[in-house]
Amino acid sequence: MTHIVKPYGDTLNDGKVQLSFALPVLTDAHGKEAARVLILSMGFDEAEITCMRDLGEGFTHFIAYASTSASVDTSKIKVKVVETPVMEMEETDLYIAEHLGREITIVGACIESDAHTVGIDAIMNMKGYNHRFGLERYQSFNAVNMGAQVASEDLLAKARELSADVILVSQVVTQKNIHIQNLTRLIELAEAEGLRDKMLFICGGPRISHELAIELGYDAGFGTGTYSTDVASYIAITLSKKQAE
Amino acid sequence: MLKLDLDNNLVSRARAAATKISSDFDWLFNGYSSVTIERTVLRLMGIDGATEDGKPLPNLLVDQLQSAGALHKGAAIWVANAMHHKSLTAQEVADSVTRGELQLTALPLAEPGVLYNLLSALSEKMLGQIKAQKAQREGYFEKYGPRRKPAIYVIVATGNIYEDLTQARAAAREGADIIAVIRSTAQSLLDYVPYGATLVGFGGTYATQENFRIMRKGLDEVSEELGRYISLTNYASGLCMPEIAAMGAIERLDLMLNDAMYGILFRDINPKRTLLDQYFARMINAFAGIEIQTGEDNYLTTSDAIEKAYTVTASQLLNESFALKSGVKPDKMGLGHAYEIDPEKENSFTYELAHAMLTRQLFPDAPVKYMPPTKFASGNIYKTHLMDAMFNFVGQLTGQGVQLLGMMTEAIHTPHLVDRSLAIENAEYIFRAVKDLGDSLQLSPDSFINRRANSVLLEATEFLEKVAAEGMFSAMAAGDFAEIKRPENGGKGLDGVFERDPDYFNPFMEQMKKELGL
Fold it and tell me: What CATH number should be reported for the domain whose range is B33-123?
């Protein structure tokens, strides 16, 4: 059923939005008007510059409110999301024992130039993050965290050596889309080595969505707010389904 | 006045244990060297430049000596010998090795006395140049007044040194006192220092000597315009600690990240390599009057900030004791800690206050470096901005030396111009608002804060005593630090560590030790 919505300030369909941006203009009436006209040219109906701040070096920061006549029909929106239900650690272990009856090997790493292990550690390390134990703690997982700056080749070699069921990759640094390059490289190498279809490829990071992951050729992607339980449940259910097929 | 009632007996016990731990490494400091230490010596002799395919000349020479099995005498002797035989400068020797015209070990070694004289002149020249840079920095502070406390520290990280400079100048005009140029993400594991000005990096900008020079020159201009000296910092960490320290000394960086154990624990660099490299790197920092900064915040980004608070204290004490061995004085020890407690935790601010006061009081002369919330920073920029304000409040209230400003977009991207500006505005407002508040407050004797600080200190003391008893390398191998196991002979860079010959000679280390009274 059609369901059309607009941004909400304090009255339904008022279309109010907040904007904040810098322009390379001086902090004066002329700059302010330039910012207002820019907002109108974005398609907004009204624009009020509520604050302008001199940033130095010829730049000015503008904070503005504007209203839009644009709307969206939420019934037409399709998104790709990981659809497996989320289970607690004990449930996942039980589920694997019942449906797979064997240990699952997971090899994880922060690949290529990325030195930030905060994501992979939160998901994999024994102690986990925010009251959810990491994959290392699960009885049914043999989880190997290779750490930071692991070359794609080394990750794949390790996965082959351990006959891994799952490869888990974290990418935190995203400047100039380096994460896309790194993730693409890994998948291309995996395909060349004939490993792509032998294991689940999962990626995660603050700027990664399930949709992006699918686009890059991965089985699943997890973004901000993901816990070990999300990843573990997905692995357990997906591998069980594959085995049943 | 806000002051903790600390158990002084514990303070002495903790310091004694830390001293014991660092003193166990005299065999390493006095008997070994590494490829990056030798490359540092060559840089200090005046050798610079890179081959067409980007290999730095100091690497080329050290590699030649290493494959000839001659490096254990030290690189200085061989280059001095070639200078003597061929009547060339050090740079000319390097150029001729690069052209494939010279094999350093093919020339017979001249009388040691001749070579020592030659090296002593070179060392005097370069160390004189470094002293002049130090004097210039001191002159600026004398002219414009000392750095404020807490000093405002912000990062730039565009990947392009010229873009970084624009952002740095803007930040300085808005009130920043210290500019850090974040390094490109993979640099810590490069066993060479890239050459020349760089325009592309990932999550940061490469640390090169030319980039240092460009940034320092730009900041000198803005310092003079503002009548306030803007300090510059970079990272003497990874596989090239002493080389980067030397470049910083030559180009007048004012602070340098230099942690005795960070590379081992968080970059999987070999323990011997790291300890050896930090020893010489810090000596260079000390000689150049550069303030070191340590990386204790890293313990808390991977572990719970309450449960593992003691690891920060223990690391600070170890960093202090290793720094003293290199001649760094307490007023140049920017020991680190961080505001990383879960904001959902009741009394999170009270805990932070206890931890921040503990650091300040244990190291009263140190310009302590206080790091912002990162672990619980999220895409909710409004909440992150609020957490940063609470962090700034603790920083001013407890008189930290350097406030590394949090950015509300910390969890999203490297800072935009606006993000940095709002962060500075936040800090300036809070610092002004609570400037003298601490003078009017005191803790009740049995307050939670007093008890908490003493309990963290007790845990740190017991931990250090345990490490002192079993030895630091064994403790690291067992995973006692940061819950990461680092065996003595594991990690990157071990093949670059070698035992010195009895006639090994490092003219710069000798001279600096003498002048630093080591």
Answer: 1.10.8.1000
